[in-house]
Amino acid sequence: MYSTSYLLFQSLTAVALGDALGFPIQHDTRSNPFDEPVNQMVDHQATGVPAGTWSDDTSMSIAALVSLTFGYNLYDLMMRYSQWYHLGDYTPFNRAYDVDETTKEAIKRFESGVEPILCGGTLDSDNNNTALKRLMPLAFFILTKNRQYTFDDATVKMIHDYTAITNRTPKTFIGSGILTNVIIRLIQNPNKYAMLRAVKEALDYYRSKEEFAAQVPFFEQLEESHFLRQSSTKIKPSSDVIATLNTVFWCLMNSEQYNVAVSKAVNLGSDADTIGSITSMLASLLFAPVTFPENWLSKLQGRNQIKIAVSVALLSDYF
């Protein structure tokens, strides 16, 4: 297991790299994306921001890390998300980019006086990857808090409450549980077998809970090797929580290097920034230690914000 300081900085940088690489080409609809793959940072034409600019995935992760530096406080976290949305905190250019509707509605509820844990959406449209974007800091927080980590009721409640500020559906709770457990197990043991065991560990937990058991079959393909090894043409990426996890784990299982996994993730199109960001973060742990491509890293905007957020977190008692 590598040091927390190394892995935390590497992971947050990886979140930003995958986000910035995918942000300009999200919703890409090329019929054969791997024929002309995007493998370098490019400008975002719609917003006019330069290459290497990250979007909500990184901003929400930085805000979460800063909040958790002072302890687990969902009110504080929602305050920071509100400041990000309205004032451009935790962004390279003082402007919030690519804020999804689930997040907007959650912030509106919070600002109207709703308790943070009740701010998340409960509609079918809220079965998305909004909560997945910001789980990495929580995983490090949980592991630091509990060196004898187990995926138990207390851990799951913390993950679900953290998820609930934006998403309050059974599927998003399960998705967050799976991803958080995978992050922690990869920090402890960086290999694909440990990753797949972590998926099974989480699903076994949810199978044992009456309120979640009926939703588990939607995720069971993540335990199947033939699903994870199928052709890329069978993978259907989107912002849906299940489709996001399907795509992320497919990219990881079919790659042997960090940059290969990330390139696959963003070039599959659709929600390329979020899928690229999550894949990049997990790949940085799975293939640790990694050397980030210089042509990506050199163009990454806001690198000092990442360094400062991680440095302050590591000075606290929570990381």
Automatic annotation (TrEMBL):
Entries under Pfam families matching the protein: ADP_ribosyl_GH (PF03747)
Q: Would the keyword Magnesium be found if you checked this record's keyword annotation?
A: yes
* Domain of life per record: Bacteria
**Requisite cofactors:** Mg(2+)
Gene Ontology MF term list: hydrolase activity; metal ion binding
Q: Where does Mg(2+) bind?
A: S55, D56, D57, D271, D273, T274
Cofactor annotation remark = Binds 2 magnesium ions per subunit.
- Tell me the keywords, alphabetical order: Hydrolase, Magnesium, Metal-binding
Q: Which InterPro entries match?
A: ADP-ribosylglycohydrolase, Ribosyl_crysJ1, Ribosyl_crysJ1_sf
Q: Which PANTHER family match?
A: ADP-RIBOSYLGLYCOHYDROLASE, ADP-RIBOSYLHYDROLASE ARH3
According to its UniProt record, which protein family does this protein belong to? Belongs to the ADP-ribosylglycohydrolase family.
Know the name of this protein? ADP-ribosylation Crystallin J1
What is the native source organism of this protein? Lentilactobacillus sunkii DSM 19904
